[in-house]
Amino acid sequence: MKVVIKIGTSTLTHPTGLLNVRLVEKICKTISDVKNAGHEIILVSSGAIGMGVGKLGLSEKPSDVASKQAAAAVGQCELMYIYDKLFGEYNHIVAQLLITGDDIENPVRHEKFSNTLSKLLELKAIPIINENDTVSTEEIVIGDNDTLGAIVAKSVDADLLIVISDIDGLYTSDPRNDPDAKLIREVDSLDSNKYALAGGSGTKFGTGGMLTKFEAAKICAGFGCEMIIVNGKNPNNIYDAIEGKPVGTRFKVNKNV
After folding, report:
1. Residues contacting 194, CB < 8 A, separation 6+
2. Which DSSP state fits 158?
3. Alpha helices, DSSP H only, in 56-201?
4. Spatial separation of the C-alpha atoms in residues 169 and 147, rounded to whole Å
5. What is the model's pTM?
6. Which of 100, 31, 97 is nearest to 69 (CA)?
7. Distance of alpha carbon 253 from alpha carbon 228, whole angstroms
8. What 8-state DSSP symbol labels residue 59?
9. 152, 4 in Cβ contact below 8 A?
10. End-to-end distance of the chain based on CA atoms, in angstroms?
11. What CA–CA distances, in Å, run from 45 to 76, 149, 244?
12. pLDDT tens digits for 72-93?
């Protein structure tokens, strides 16, 4: 199975913006085991700006573009160092790909991007992809890694996109505010009622939210790829998602949605 796994900033870091070492170690161990089982894995990882903010000792994510790009430059270096170290412990090679919206919109650049991904998978490496926040501008920005995860999944015709988040999935209401909120196990249509359940960005260091996950699911539906949201606090959820067990929220959306 060809699987794209997207990890959000809120999973990678503590509220301080610094790396959640114990959790990231467990996630990398689980992904390594999944790859050992014969699955092809591509990792779409957020966290560059968030980790840069933490390493630079800033109290919150900067608002100006130059500071964001500086934080991304510091954080991306740290992020790849961690991934290289942790996956290397299980004899897996990682590769870094930083892209912008132009790499997706331009047919020639997109083809080269897709070809590179396919070759890396053939060579048994784990491609780790992030938006190139140090050079992205408003005109070429992708914007969030939920969308990027879906675009990557489409580029390699993946079987499954796993979105690792800090919540269990889609709820009937915001579980942070409503104790009676119930987890929705499967979504088979992205109608207006479902969209009404989506909110904004969940953390001060991240850029995503449930709405961006809906948009990612819509992209996946367009080429017949399932998407599932799971809580990263329990890395075993990755096993369950791949094995088709009832975990998180699985988007089983048909192509006509």
Report:
1. 170, 187, 214
2. -
3. 65-88, 101-105, 107-122, 145-155, 192-195
4. 17
5. 0.87
6. 100
7. 11
8. S
9. yes
10. 24
11. 10, 9, 23
12. 899 899 899 999 999 999 999 9
